[in-house]
Amino acid sequence: MQPSADSLHLGNYLGALTNWVKMQDDFNAYYMLADLHAITVPQDPKELRDNTRRTAAQYLAAGIDPEKSALFMQSQVPAHAQLAWVLNCIAGFGEASRMTQFKDKSQKAGADTASVGLFTYPILQAADILLYQPKKVPVGEDQRQHLELTRDLAERFNTRFGKTFTVPEAHILKETAKIYDLQNPESKMSKSNEPKGTINIMDDSALTLKKIKGAVTDLDNEIRFDVQNKPGVSNLLGIYSAVSGNSVQQLVSELSGKGYGDLKTEVADAVLAVIEPIRDRANELLANRDELDRLLGLGAERANALAEQTLADVYEKIGFIPRK
C-alpha cells in the first residue's frame, strides 16, 4: 500500500492485510511501503514521513512479523528505481498508455497536470515485483492488468538477454466481504471518500462508534441481507460477518426481531473488538520511533540483499561495467 493517509481503513485491513498476515506462514514474504509510488502525486514531506511510519506501525500491529517477513520502505532499496529505469527502456509507450489506472487518474486531475512518474509507475511496479524473483504475487482483480505488464516485461528481457527473471503468477486473494462506505453503501470504503463514511483503524473508539451509529440504513427497520433494496443494512451485515467470522445468515437469524439500533450497536462492538488492539499497539510502536525505524531498517537490509543480486545480474546482462 502507498503510505498516503494517516490511517488504514477497515476495507484495507479486511481486504488485504489479514490475507498478508496469513501468507507469512506459507511463503517467504516481502511487504513494501510504496513511498516512491506515493510521490507520483504531490506530497507534503512531513506528512509523507509521518504517514509512512503510521502505516508501518499498523502493519506490525496487525500481525506482520519482522522475524518471518521483510517489511521495508521502497525508497530504502535503491534497486527499485534502478531496475525501473532498465525496464522503462524496454517497455513500449503504447503498452504503458493502455494502463487503465493511469487513464482514470489522469482524467480526474487533467492530463496536463499528471506527472511522468504517474504515467510510468506500472513500470516501477514491475521492478518492485521482479527484483525478488517471486513465483506468486498477491493481487486483486484490479491489479491483474499491471501484473500482465510485469510478466510481459520479464519475458521480453529474458528473450533478449537470457534467463534472468522468474515470470510471476497471480495469487488472487480469496475475497472477503466487500466493505462499503457507511454513508454511500454503493461505493467501496475508501480514504478518498467523505470521512464519516470510513472506519479508520487509528480513529478514537468514540468516533468509530459515532460513524457506525450514523450509518445509512432505510425506513422499514427489517434486518435482512438484500444488496439491491437494502444496501446500507447489507453493508453493516457484511462488516459484522467479516469481523466476527460468523455467516451473514447466522447473524440475520440472531438479530431476528431486533431493530437497526441493535444492529449498529452489535456491529460497533464487533468492529472495536478487532481494531482497538491494533490501534493501541500501533500507537505504542509510534511512541518508540527509533525502534520502529530499526525494524524497518532490518527489513530493508533483507530486501536489499536479494534486490541487489537481481540488479547485478541485470546490469551484467545488458552490458554495464561493474564498479571496482
Strand content: under 5%
Distance between the termini: 37 Å
Mean pLDDT: 92
Radius of gyration: 22 Å
Query: Major sheet: size, sense and barrel closure?
Result: 2 strands, parallel
Order of helices and strands: HEHHEHHHHEHEHHHHH
Q: Given the C-alpha coordinates, what overall shape results?
A: globular
List segments where confidence is low: pLDDT < 50 over at least 5 consecutive residues: none
Strand order of the largest sheet: 1-2
Total count of helical runs of at least 4 residues: 13
What share of the residues lie within helices?
A: 55-70%
The strand count comes to 4
What structural class should be given to the helix and strand makeup?
Answer: mainly alpha
Based on the model shown, name its key terms.
324 residues, mainly alpha, two-stranded parallel sheet
Describe the structure.
By secondary structure, this protein is mainly α. It is built from 13 helices and 4 strands. It has helices at 10-23, 35-38, 45-62, 79-88, 93-97, 100-109, 116-130, 144-161, 205-213, 231-244, 248-254, 260-287, 289-318, and strands at residues 30-33, 70-73, 136-139, 169-172. The strands form 2 sheets. A two-stranded parallel sheet has the order 1-2. α4 (79-88) packs across α7 and α7 packs across α8 (144-161). The longest helix is centred in the C-terminal third of the chain and has 30 residues, at 289-318.
